[in-house]
């Protein structure tokens, strides 16, 4: 009985072993992977904290201007130009030129032709007085007056011909004299502007220079020509009228009057004065011309 069990078990083992030796079909196995991504989300939630000892100030939000440096620089340049223009326009500048005729009492004896013809050039500056139509005007002029008579001892017998003597008895021989001369003047005037008309009046200070020639001694010989000059500074008045013909151009007519005291011709090398007098002479002149305003009016 026991032997039968052993044979039966042995037969089962052999049968199983034989089936195991047979080739089996390979099955395909698919593997899937499931990926799960988790993200963290944070939520902010204000907490109402109460503290008796904690003191907080309210938050102050201030605006901050973003500056444009280039624009600021341009604005500064424009402001400077405006200031300069305003200062420049506060004062008015101009030049003028003209012709004139001059009468002198002290030359009337020597000259049948009393009037002298001359030319002049000048510059002026004016400033308006507040907002009124009045303006204060300061001007400076140079005049050149042509001769209205000519005394020449070498050509004719004049009332000045002859010898003259200095205080130390040196001889002087008259040669020639005429009233051709230069004149310089400063004027301070007040002008009133009404439409295109501008009347004015003021005071003036002028300086005349006349010249006379003598033969003077040199090494005790009378052979040197020398000049004796008269330099006179006088005070007078003037008035006139300007009329605007264009924006920058004005024409004018002016009368001037002043007195000359004690005409004298002197030379620093000789103690001599041929025309020293105590008389007072009058000079007057009428000028016509055109004025150009450089600045805006």
How would you summarize this macromolecular structure in one to three sentences?
By secondary structure, the protein is mainly beta. The chain has helices at residues 2-20, 69-90, and strands spanning 91-104, 116-128, 134-145, 150-152, 163-165, 171-192, 197-218, 221-244, 249-261, 280-293.
Summary tags:
mainly beta, 8-stranded antiparallel barrel, rod-shaped
Question: What features would you describe in this structure?
Answer:
There is one protein chain. The protein contains two helices and ten strands; from the N terminus they run H-H-E-E-E-E-E-E-E-E-E-E. The chain has helices at 2-20, 69-90, and strands spanning 91-104, 116-128, 134-145, 150-152, 163-165, 171-192, 197-218, 221-244, 249-261, 280-293. With 297 residues, it is mostly beta strands.
Largest sheet: 8 strands, antiparallel, barrel
Q: Rg from C-alpha positions?
A: 57 Å
User: What are the secondary-structure elements, in order, as H or E?
Assistant: HHEEEEEEEEEE
Number of helices: 2
The span between the termini is 155 Å
Structural class: mainly beta
**Portion in beta strands:** over 45%
Binned, the helix content reads 10-25%
Could you name the ranges where pLDDT drops below 50 across 5 or more consecutive residues?
none
Average pLDDT number: 79
Number of separate strands: 10
> Within the largest sheet, what's the order of strands?
1-2-3-6-7-8-9-10
Shape: rod-shaped
